[in-house]
Amino acid sequence: MSNPSEINGGSAVAMIGKDCVAIACDLRLGLQSVTVSGDFEKIFQYGGNFVAFTGLATDVQTVSTELRQKHALYEMVEERSMEPNTAAHLVSSMLYSRRFAPWFVGPLVAGINSTTGEPYVCSFDSIGSMDVSHDFVVTGTATNQLYGMAESLYEKDMSPEQLFETISQTLLCAADRDAITGSGGLVYVIEKNGKVTKKLLKSRQD
Amino acid sequence: MAGLSFDNYRRNKSLEASGVLPPKTTSTGTTIVGCKFNGGVILSADTRATAGMVVADKNCLKLHRLAPNIWCAGAGTASDNDKVTELESSQLEIHSQWTGRAPRVVTALTHLKQHLFKYQGHVGAYLIIAGVDVTGSHLFSLHAHGSTDVGPYLALGSGSMAALSVLESKWKEDLTKEEAMELCSEAIMAGVFNDLASGSNVDLCVIEKGKPSRLHRGYKQPNQRLQKQRNYNFDIGTTSYFEAGSEVFYISKQSDLETSAMEVDQVS
User: Fold this and answer.
1) In Gene Ontology terms, what is a biological process of this protein (chain A) (predicted)?
2) Is A206 within a domain?
3) Chain A nearest-CA residue for B122
4) Per the structure, how many domains does chain A have?
5) What does pTM read for this prediction?
6) What is this model's ipTM?
7) Between the N and C ends of chain A, which has fewer C-beta atoms within 10 Å?
8) Inter-residue contact A161 to A127 (CB < 8 Å)
9) Pairing between strand B27-28 and B32-37?
10) What is the mean pLDDT of each run of 10 residues along chain A (206 residues)?
11) Which CATH number belongs to the domain containing residue A109 in this structure?
12) Catalytic residue IDs of B
């Protein structure tokens, strides 16, 4: 146990397609090398925004719940839905407010801006540095493997169907080379018209 | 900053005591330069952000606008740079609304150095601040501990030695705007190619007296990705999934507050 972000394991990836975004995570929850659960979902829905949290599981649950409260309050006060870039800045402020005693999480935000129709993905470090990307973002213990897969598989302007295949294979192949990522995969494909396709991947269970 | 929370401090400290390392944060292991010319001042930066040896962002923006006439370039911890410049730009806006004057560069500098000194170097922002105001054009550097420097040309970050080798040999007094732009981009390119923590493109910002500041995003792009010769397009249906556990649903444009139950309501 030398790194709190690597105790429970887990990874996530998000990609931009043509008028769509996809976000995917693995389902493993472990205590170092011991797998405790195979249905630990790391993607949370906040209206039209999908946020993945990887890292220390206790912090994943705490931060995702705190964000649920802040999102609900925003919608009640503002009387409108929250755009993805707003959600990203909210996550960033939440993390930076704990600059000197951080949550051990690595979040991703994915969504489509409801006014411009622009797909949006963004990743963060544990203290809230935003990395807004025009192609893909990755996080978690399989970060290196995901970067390798995504950098070679990713193409611009993919259809929702093609994006599903690409993000799934990126996650599955990366998980195969990380001992503490895997035990199933979950993919959300979000389209411009509001259609969300959630798919539970068949994957190796070792 | 309306007070940073130290709630997790003791927990993280005790984790640290049991052999836990703090997580890697994104750092802008960087080359940034600033250079004065006869009509104003220029800032320039590379666009690589790293987390350890991994390139976290290939095209990040390290030039921040503090005010329309004052910009700064940041090296060090990425989030510290983002937040400290965001905070300062708000404060300068409020200050200039209050005084009814355009903000001065020294105001930004003094304010930032007091903030950084207060945090004793733990807020890891290393900045080059440049701008024009009623007193002329200015160029300053500011270290995370709060010390400041003044100069006609400055460089900061892990690629600063590479950049300074160019600046020291080629800088002269009374540069024209075009000469200064060329000098700055050449200095950044020295960092891009000779410092491993710097890379990708060159961003450049020109601040001139009496003219709107101009940000040249991607001023030089010497490291464009080559077109791939072949693609890995998987056939649709390659990835197998469980029908049970998969679903299709729609997100409403405006979330319906009446029908969206709170989490506590869903617990039976």
Assistant:
1) proteasome-mediated ubiquitin-dependent protein catabolic process
2) no
3) A100
4) 1
5) 0.91
6) 0.93
7) C
8) no
9) unpaired
10) 90 98 98 96 98 98 98 96 98 96 97 97 97 97 98 97 98 98 98 97 96
11) 3.60.20.10
12) 30
